[in-house]
Write a structure and sequence with these properties.
heterodimer, A: about 500 residues, alpha+beta, five-stranded mixed β-sheet, 10 helices, about 55% helix, rod-shaped, B: Rossmann fold, Arc Repressor Mutant, subunit A, five-stranded parallel β-sheet, four-stranded antiparallel β-sheet, globular
Chain lengths: ~500, ~240
């Protein structure tokens, strides 16, 4: 039962608060009580001795009562009894005639003496008990205050905060431990220095343990109760955090699963539609039970051709999207001749949609950008495909592609302008989310991936994409890329 | 002289064109519609003999169109869908569709279904199909005789009822429920196992290879079809 005389340092070298202090001071107080009993009795005796003959016995007796009371109040029952006995003997020896002997002369004096002894013992006991009770009450109050503080800290912890460090540090400070650590069952770490351990459990299920290390006397009952109450609360909070995390993971899983299913349904429909048109056209022509006109023949073959292109485009988009999402794409950024790339894309688009007119205009100072040529090509191809669809659906036929330098920073902005139905303002933000489709009619938009892919590619090239309304009606999709500085020598600059 | 009027409903232009081409080059008059609203309108004005309907339509969906049409018309409906699952098919058939095709499909499959649905069944003044020949197998419903290679095959009374129910709608999808009702009557609607057993028995008697049936063919989870063409077309 070691205790440390003097100051006990908490986590910061200062006195720990009330609860710990109560336990620590008890042994010291007892010692003090014994000192008062012995030294007090001796001192009083020495003081009163010269007046031995002048004072009545009772008056001298009162003085010793004061010592007894003092000893009992300070040190408890032990010192009180010691003081009573010492006083009894001293009073008898020095102040009851015959002086300097233990023999008591008169019968009255015997009575007085023993009454005095009985009284002083009773007083010691009563005082000691009162003192204990007061101390216990104080301890309870300190315990409650401590527990209240810790509870408040625990309650303030949000679910998923993860770290109980602050609370545990406070526990250490309150109780005078140098370190308090929590080990939850899942985490099996090294045991470290052995310290005091408290098991945490909820509903009979063991969750882990709390380890308290430090140099201080063993815990009092009051302290033990507070610590127990705290660790029970901690167990509940830890369990709540664990369940909350599990619930969130389940939620995420459910949502991902739902998304995966609807993705699969959308993709299935969008891929099978062109296949259905192709199969129907081809088997129609193969059928021997039909008469086909040259127009029928032409229409069927064109349909097969167009639908094959559509399918190829959709599959390319799906592959791109899965690569972007898988994070396995690397942009090979280099100096690129923007005019060349745009002009090639426009030519391809004109071959695919011969009825459209697509104009191209690249400013001189916007000729070079830093980009991955393949990604840039896909972005422009996707935007042209959307514009072509919008133009065809609305019958407007005209598309413009422009590139100019942004005066504010070193970027080039490319605009693809159509005069179709346009996009409502409230839908513009969601347009770039994978699989978003403006309405079900646009299932020709090809699994709704095109814009999400554009966004993904541009992000990899430090660019951005957005949509505005075309003056007079329609959609204008714009994207930005960093300007290439220096000269372009027909291809790549050193990165 | 046109063989019949067909209304084709699909939101994809390429499919509308392909199906229209297939049907018109085979002698049918064709109207097309791109969504549910148009379809209902066209059904009223065009008065088709058959409706080919895609289930995945924008806004008013295919099943709803089916329900609408059935409310005032008995026109045969053939539904098209990208989904193969049984639940989808059953839902469509429950709502009044008569048959089901999964995309992508060949025009030969399409035409077989179309002809099956347009063929008039017996009981309307026109005689139903009653003679079938396939290789060395010959079937005569009116005299209740079946023979393969000259050797007569004996069928029980129930087996004959089953043959009649199937053979009077060559090529058409006949659901379990419909067959059970026709052959066994009330109280047997749920007993698909009974039907399966009898079909299996029938196959053992009349199919050349019962494990690869060509006459009575299963549409899994839904019903059966009689695939022999009648020797004398009913009309």
């Amino acid at each position: 039962m070691a205790f440390v005389a003097g100051t006990i340092t908490g986590t910061r070298g200062r006195m720990p608060p009330r609860l710990a202090r109560l336990t620590i001071r008890r042994p010291r107080r007892r010692l003090a009580g014994y000192l008062v009993a012995t030294v007090g009795t001796a001192a009083l005796t020495a003081a009163l001795l010269p007046f031995r003959n002048g004072l009545a016995p009772l008056s001298k007796g009162f003085g010793y009562l004061v010592i007894v009371v003092a000893a009992a109040a300070i040190g408890g029952l032990g010192p009180g009894i010691l003081a009573s006995l010492l006083s009894f003997l001293t009073f008898n020896f020095f102040f009851l005639p015959p002086y300097n002997s233990f023999i008591i002369g008169s019968g009255e004096d015997i009575v007085v003496l023993f009454v005095f002894l009985g009284l002083s013992i009773l007083i010691s006991a009563a005082l000691a008990r009162a003192s204990e009770r007061a101390e216990a009450a104080e301890a309870r109050e300190a315990g409650l205050a401590g527990l209240q503080e810790l509870s408040a800290l625990l309650v303030a912890l949000g679910a998923g905060d993860g770290s109980y460090d602050a609370v545990l540090a406070r526990v250490g400070a309150l109780f005078g431990f140098s370190s308090v650590t929590l080990a939850l069952d899942e985490a099996s770490g090294p045991l470290g220095d052995p310290g005091m351990e408290m098991a945490l459990s909820v509903g009979g299920r063991s969750l882990g343990r709390l380890t308290l290390r430090g140099e201080r006397p063993p815990l009092s009952d009051a302290e033990g109760r507070v610590l127990r109450a705290f660790s029970d609360q901690l167990a509940v909070v830890a369990e709540r955090d664990r369940l909350s995390k599990a619930a969130m993971e389940a939620q995420v899983y459910r949502e991902t699963d739902h998304l995966r299913r609807s993705l699969l349904a959308a993709v299935s429909h969008d891929l099978r539609s062109p296949l259905a048109a192709i199969k129907a056209s081809v088997t129609d022509l193969l059928g021997e039970d039909a008469e086909h006109s040259p127009d029928d023949l032409r229409e069927a073959l064109e349909s097969v051709n167009d639908e094959t292109d559509r399918l190829a485009s959709m599959i390319a988009n799906l592959l791109d999207m899965s690569r972007i999402e898988g994070g396995i794409l690397r942009a090979r950024v280099q100096g690129v001749d923007l005019g060349e790339v745009l002009s090639e894309c426009v030519d391809r688009a004109l071959r695919r949609w011969p009825g459209l007119s697509i104009s191209l205009n690249v400013d001189d100072d916007a000729a070079g950008v830093r980009a991955d040529p393949l990604f840039l090509d896909r972005v422009v191809a996707n935007l042209l495909e959307n514009a072509a669809k919008a133009a065809t659906e609305s019958g407007t036929r005209g598309i413009e592609v422009e590139a100019h330098r942004d005066p504010d920073d070193a970027t080039v902005v490319v605009a693809v302008i159509d005069h179709g139905r346009g996009v409502a303002p409230e839908l513009r933000r969601d347009l770039f989310v994978a699989f978003y489709q403006v309405d079900r009619r646009n299932s020709h938009v090809g699994t709704g991936l095109g814009l999400a892919i554009c966004k993904g590619f541009l992000a990899l090239m430090s660019g951005a994409i957005w949509v505005d309304e075309t003056v007079g009606g329609g959609a204008t999709f714009r994207f930005s890329l960093p300007l290439a500085v220096g000269s372009l020598t027909g291809g790549s600059l050193s990165a | 002289m046109k063989k019949g009027k067909v209304l084709v409903v699909d939101d994809e232009e390429a499919i509308r064109k392909a199906v229209r081409r297939a049907l018109s080059s085979r002698g049918f008059a064709v109207e097309v519609a791109a969504d549910g609203e148009e379809a209902i309108g066209a059904a009223r004005t065009f008065d088709p003999d058959l409706v080919i309907l895609d289930l995945n339509l924008p806004e008013l969906d295919g099943l709803a169109v089916c329900r609408h049409l059935r409310a005032w018309s008995a026109v045969p409906i053939l539904v098209l869908s990208v989904r193969e699952d049984e639940a989808d098919k059953v839902a469509a058939l429950d709502l009044g569709a008569d048959d089901y095709l999964t995309k992508p499909f060949g025009v030969d499959e399409l035409m077989a279904r179309v002809r099956a649905l347009l063929r008039r069944t017996g009981g309307q003044g026109t005689p139903g199909p009653f003679r079938f020949n396939d290789g060395d197998l010959s079937i005569d419903l009116s005299s209740h005789t079946i023979a393969r290679g000259g050797a007569e095959i004996h069928l029980t009374k129930t087996e004959w009822s089953l043959v009649e129910a199937l053979a009077q709608h060559p090529g058409k999808l006949l659901t379990h429920g419909w067959l059970l009702d026709r052959v066994w009557g009330n109280g047997y609607e749920g007993d698909v196992d009974v039907l399966r057993v009898f079909v299996s028995q029938l196959r053992r008697k009349i199919e050349e290879d019962p494990r690869r049936p060509r006459i009575v063919v299963t549409d899994p989870g839904i019903g059966y079809r009689w695939l022999l063409r009648p020797s004398e077309p009913p009309d």
